[in-house]
Amino acid sequence: MKSLFNFFTILIIISATTSCSKDDIDQNNNLVGVWERNDFIDNTGYKLVFGSDNTGLKIHVIESSTGEIASSASPFKWELADNVVTIVTNDISQETYRINPEGQLVLSTAENSSFNKVSDDYSQYY
Question: Which superkingdom does the taxonomy of this entry point to (predicted)?
Answer without folding.
Answer: Bacteria
